[in-house]
């Protein structure tokens, strides 16, 4: 059951990040989930000094969102040459 919750939360985080970065039309549900999960990992590494905490809370949700936005900014920078 925990895996399903993480996939749903990852999808929501990835979708919100794609809305902020205006890349929502280019991404599907699967890519939103991947962006959310990878963004959570990146945010955890940045904000917690390398200690990734798997607890589900508002703070971890916001850290995941910031990490996903950073990930999409890097992807846009590599793909287009600008953050957008």
Task: Describe the overall structure.
- There is one protein chain.
- The longest helix is centred in the C-terminal third of the chain and has 23 residues, at 58-80.
- The mean pLDDT is 80.
- The chain has helices at residues 2-20, 29-47, 58-80.
- Helix 1 packs across helix 2 and helix 1 packs across helix 3.
- It has one domain.
- Helices cover 73% and strands 0% of the residues.
- It has three helices and no strands.
- It is mainly alpha-helical and 84 residues long.
Q: How many strands in all?
A: 0
Number of individual domains: 1
**DSSP helix fraction:** over 70%
**Radius of gyration in whole Å, from Cα?**
12 Å
Anisotropy-based shape:
globular
The end-to-end distance, rounded to whole angstroms, is: 37 Å
State the helix count.
3
Detail the poorly predicted runs: none
């Amino acid at each position: 059951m925990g895996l399903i919750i993480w996939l749903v939360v990852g999808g929501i985080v990835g979708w919100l990040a794609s809305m902020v970065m205006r890349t929502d039309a280019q991404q599907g549900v699967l890519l939103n989930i991947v962006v959310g999960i990878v963004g959570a990992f990146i945010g955890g590494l940045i904000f917690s000094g390398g200690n990734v905490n798997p607890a589900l809370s508002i703070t971890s949700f916001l850290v995941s969102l910031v990490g996903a936005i950073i990930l999409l900014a890097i992807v846009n920078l590599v793909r287009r040459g600008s953050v957008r």
